[in-house]
Design brief:
This protein is of the alpha/beta class. It has 3 domains: about 220 residues, Spore Coat Polysaccharide Biosynthesis Protein SpsA, Chain A, CATH 3.90.550.50; about 100 residues, Nuclear Transport Factor 2, Chain: A (Roll), CATH 3.10.450; about 240 residues, Spore Coat Polysaccharide Biosynthesis Protein SpsA, Chain A, CATH 3.90.550. Helices cover about 35% and strands about 20% of the residues. The protein has a 6-stranded mixed beta sheet. Helix 14 runs parallel beside helix 16 and helix 20 crosses helix 21.
Amino acid sequence: VAMRLAALLAALRPVLPLVLGLSLGCSLSLLRASWSQSGGEDQCLGGVGRPGPLAGGALQEAADGRLGPGHEDFRPRIVPYYRDPNKPYKKVLRTRYIQTELGFHERLFVAVLTSKATLNTLAVAVNKTVAHHFSRLLYFTGLRSAKVPHGMVLVSHGDERPIWLMYETMNYIHQHFGSDYDWFYIMQDDTYAQAEQVKALVTHLSINQDVYLGRAEEFIGGDEQARYCHGGFGYLISRSLLLKLHPHLDSCRNEILSVRPDEWLGRCIIDFLGVTCVSQLQGQNYHTYELAKNTEPEKEEEEEFQAAVAVHPVSDMTLMYRLHKHFSRIQLDRAYQEIQDLQMQIRNLTSLTPAGEVGLTWPVGINAPFLPKSRFEVISWDYFTEQHLFSCPDGSPKCELSGASKADVSEIIESALEQLNSRYQPLLRFSKRQLLNGYRRFDPTRGMEYTLDLLLEAVTQKGHSHVLAKRVSLVRPLSKVEIIPMPYVTEATRVQLVLPLTVQDLDFVANFLDMFAMNTLDTHDNALLTLLFIYHPYDAQRVSQVDVFAGVKAMVGELEKRYADVKIPWISVKTEVPSQVKLMDIVSKKHPVDTLFFLASVWTEVNMEFLNRCRMNTISNWQVFFPVHFQEFNPALVYRGEQTASSTTDFLRDGHFDRHSFAEACFYNSDYMTARTKLAADILDRDEVLESMEVFDVFLHYSGLHLFRAVEPGLVQKYALRSCNPRLNEELYHRCVLSNLEGLASRSHLAMALFEQEQANST
C-alpha cells in the first residue's frame, strides 16, 4: 500500500501546483463575490429587499440600455461624414511623420547666447563639448552678417543690445520651435553645462506645469519673494510657460527697464504670469557652482562642484575643455560604479533563479553566447596574429593586418594587459612578449568576442621574472543602439534608367525591354529609360552601311508605337574601352541635376519592388545605393538535364549574391556632379585614370556621402557568361573573371559535375 501511495504521489506531483493554484483562485473569487454583494447592499439599497431610488433608477436605465444624465460624455456616438456640396473638394493632406499627427513633441531645445567677442572662442568651445549631446542646439547673436564657424547653426538678430537680443531670441524660439519641443534650455557661451544631467533633469519633470527653473537670484531693491533665474548658470523654461509668455513680450519690451537680460526676462515672467524662478521643483534640484578666478578643475573636491549641473563663469576655451574632461571623467566613474553594483546584484540574485549559479553568464550582465541549433548556424572564429589576418575580405587565405583591424587587435592586447595588471598588482606585473594565437568572432547577440594566447613576462615585487603563456578571453559588447536620423524621402520620385549596351549584349536586350515594358510601362510606374549604344571604332565607321544596333532601335520603335506617351531616347558613343565614368559623364550632362539615376545592366530584370527600394535608399546629398544583385547559377551544371526548379518554391536558392559586380547603382545627378568635380580637380588632365575607375570609386573617394551597399533580392539575373574586356584595368578585369567563375555553380554542384565527368571518363 505504501508503495502504491508513493507511486500515486509521484504521478500527481507535477500537477499539484496547478491544482493548488486553481483551488486558491476559486476560493478568493468566491470570497470577493460575497464581499461585493454585502457592500453593495449597504451602499446602493435602502434596506434588505427594499431598493433605494438611486439603485432603482440605475438598474432601470441599465435594463433599458440608456445611461443617466451624467453619462452623456461616455456614450459612444457615430459622427456622420458630411461634405458641403457648394465647396470644392480638397484632398486631405497627411503629415510626413506619425508623431506629428499624434501631437508628439521633441524633448529639449537648447539656445546659446553669444557675442562678437566670444563667437569664435567660447561659442566654439561649447559646440565642441556639449553640442553633440543635444538633438537641437542653436546660437543667437546680435551681429550682422556674422561669419559662422564650421558645424554651428547661428541666428543673427542684427542688434547687439542685450535686452533686444533676449527679446528677439524668445520670439524666434516661440515662432520656430514653440510647437515642436517640451522644454527650452537657455544658456550663455561662458557657461559649462553637463548635458547629460540637463537631459536627465527634464525627463523627471512634468510638462503640465509652468516651469521656470534655474539659479534663483533676488532683484535689486525689489520684492523679497520674487526671484529671477541667473543667465550665467542657464535656466529651463517649459513649453506651457513659453506659450503664455509670448503675447506679453512686446509689453515687457516697452514697459520694463533693465540692464541685465536675464533680470528683464525674470521680471516679465513675474509681472505678467506670476511665476518666479525656483532652484528646486518636483523633487529635482538645479545645482550650480560659481567658479573663482584661477580655479583648477582637477583639484576641486567640493561636493557642490561635483554635483553641479552648470558652472559659471568660464573665462577661456582651455578652461572649458578642462571642465569637460573633468566632468566626463566623473560621469565615466559613476557609470563604471553603477555597472559594478548591477553586476553584484545580478550575482546575488542568480542563486534564486531556477538555473542557479550555473546560469550566470560571463561577463555578468551581458547576453549569453549564441547557441546554434545546427551546424549551419555555427559562428566561425577568425584566426589572427599581430601581423596577419587569416580570414580576409577578398577570400584569400592570408593578408596583412592593417587599418581598423590592426588598431582593434592592438587595443584588445593593451586592454588584456591592463586587466591582468589591475587584478594581480602589486604582487605581479605583466608585460607582453608575444601574441601566440588570436581568435575573434562577431556574435550578433552580444558583440565581438576575442580569445588571446599571450606569452607574458611576470615580474614579482622582489624583481624576479618568469615567462609564461596565458589564455585570456575578452568581449567588446554591443553598445546602446542609436537611431540615425535620415532625411525624408518618398516613393513618388521619377527614376531614370540608364542602360549601356555593347555588341556582346545584343542577345539579351529583347528580354530586358520585355521586362521593362511589363513591370514599368504596363503598371504606369514613374520610370524612364535611356539607352547608351557603345560603338567600337570599326563598327562606327560602317554604321551607314551596317548598324549593329539596328535591331535594338527597331524594338524601341515598336515599344513607342505600343505606348504612345512613352519616348525612349538613345545616345551613341564611340570608344574601345567603355569606361563607366566616361559614359556617365555623357549621360549626366543631358539630364537635370535633380534626376535620380538607376544605372542598370542588360541582364537586369527591372521590377516595381526594386525601383521603390531604389527611391527609398537613395537620398540627395546624403546617400547613394549600390545593390548586390542575385546571380542564378548555370542551369546546365545545377540541374544537369533535370527539370528546372520553380521560381516560386525555390526563390533565391540556386544562385548567389554577386559581390564582385558594381554595375547597378542608384544616385542623384547632383551628387554625381559634385563628386565628379572633385575627381577632375584631383586627376587634372589625366583622363586615362578614368578607365580604371567605376562610379562606385568616384563616390567612395570623392564624396562625403553614405554608400549603402546591400544585397537586393529584387534584382535577380539569369545566368549568362559575361564578356570581360581585356582592355579594362587589371582590377576590373579580375573582378569580371571572378564574377563569371563564382557564377557557374556552388561547390557541391561543381563537385558533382567533376565526379560524373570522372565516372564517364573511367568507363
